[in-house]
Amino acid sequence: QSDAPLTLATLAESAAMSPYHFHREFKALTGMTPKAWQNALRAQKLQAALRGGMTVTDSLWEAGFSSASALYRDADRALGMRPRQYRRGGEKIAIRYAIAPCEAGLCLVAASDRGLCAVLLADDAAALEAELATIFPHAERLAPDAAFSAQVAQVTAWLDAPQGELALPLDLRGTAFQLRVWQALQAVPPGSTISYQTLAERTGNPQAVRAVASACAANKLAIVVPCHRVVRRDGALSGYRWGADRKARLLAREREQEK
């Protein structure tokens, strides 16, 4: 456990390879550099420790940080907020949200001061409220104002006919690997599907099919990050955070719109 990650030379020596060849083979296998992999692993350990109720001080040692200054230097990238806020479920983070009808049912659109942080789908408002509370249990949840209501209208119109990128900033919070998967998903056009295997290959990590599936399940921006377009290798539908029936309807609607 150290703030200083294992050096490339040390890792290469342990694998009986030159640093150049180790770096090349590692990136080919994982889709990430050794340094990026270690940073992502440390971020995951930090998140798990904070969610588990550890103090910030204990969490920083558990995750491998050698000092509080090192933790706070990297906290924004690893957590999307200050460590104490993350531990308390986003306490003191202000989130404005609204629920509106769309072709997929009801959608809850939520945004922080950074951008859209959640687009959730359900058939009743109570389920949407409960899901938002689970994601940000202690955040300050604010009612929509006029400016945000205009954004919600923009989002719902786009959700009903998704063409191109949604012209609003996104507040994506996840591990480095999850962000890679979500970015790759945004390149899958409406009317198309992609298999978990192909998506893993596009992230540079063809062996990480299960990790790709987990990243899809962790997506909080329905349709904006189109995890509903991911199917099994044989084309069969797989699970969907907001229901397999809704996934089938979304795909059928997009195929019809693209004709």
Automatic annotation (TrEMBL):
Signal sequence interval, chain numbering: none
Entries under SUPFAM superfamilies matching the protein: Homeodomain-like (SSF46689), Methylated DNA-protein cysteine methyltransferase domain (SSF53155), Methylated DNA-protein cysteine methyltransferase, C-terminal domain (SSF46767)
Molecular functions per Gene Ontology: DNA-binding transcription factor activity; methylated-DNA-[protein]-cysteine S-methyltransferase activity; sequence-specific DNA binding
CDD domains assigned: ATase (cd06445)
GO process annotations (BP): DNA repair; methylation
Domain HTH araC/xylS-type: 1-89
Keywords associated with the record: DNA damage, DNA repair, DNA-binding, Methyltransferase, Transcription, Transcription regulation, Transferase
Reactions accelerated catalytically: a 4-O-methyl-thymidine in DNA + L-cysteinyl-[protein] = a thymidine in DNA + S-methyl-L-cysteinyl-[protein]; a 6-O-methyl-2'-deoxyguanosine in DNA + L-cysteinyl-[protein] = S-methyl-L-cysteinyl-[protein] + a 2'-deoxyguanosine in DNA
Protein name stated in the entry: Bifunctional DNA-binding transcriptional regulator/O6-methylguanine-DNA methyltransferase Ada
Organism of provenance: Cronobacter turicensis
Taxonomic path: Bacteria, Pseudomonadati, Pseudomonadota, Gammaproteobacteria, Enterobacterales
